[in-house]
Design a protein that fits this description.
Length: 90
Amino acid sequence: METRIAVIGIIVEDLRSVEALNGILHQFGSYIIGRMGMPYRRRGVSIVSIAIDAPQDVISTLSGRIGKLPGVSAKTAYSNVITKCDGSDE
C-alpha cells in the first residue's frame, strides 16, 4: 500500500455542520497526524486544518465527504512524497 502526506484546509461557514464534521474526522482518525481549529468569530466562521498520512483514495474520500457538508468547503494540498507502507504501523 502507498500513502501520501496531505493537508486539508477546511472553512466552516455554517456552524450547524460542526458536529457532522467532527464525526467524519473521527471516522478517519487513524490516518490523521494532527488537527488545528481556529474560530474566527469576527467573520462567523471556523478554520480547520488537518494533516493526514493515508492512501490517495482515503484522502480523496475524506475531502469529498467534508466538502459535501452544508456550508463547508475543503481543499487538499498533497506532498510529492509517496511512501510504501506494509500496514504494520497503522
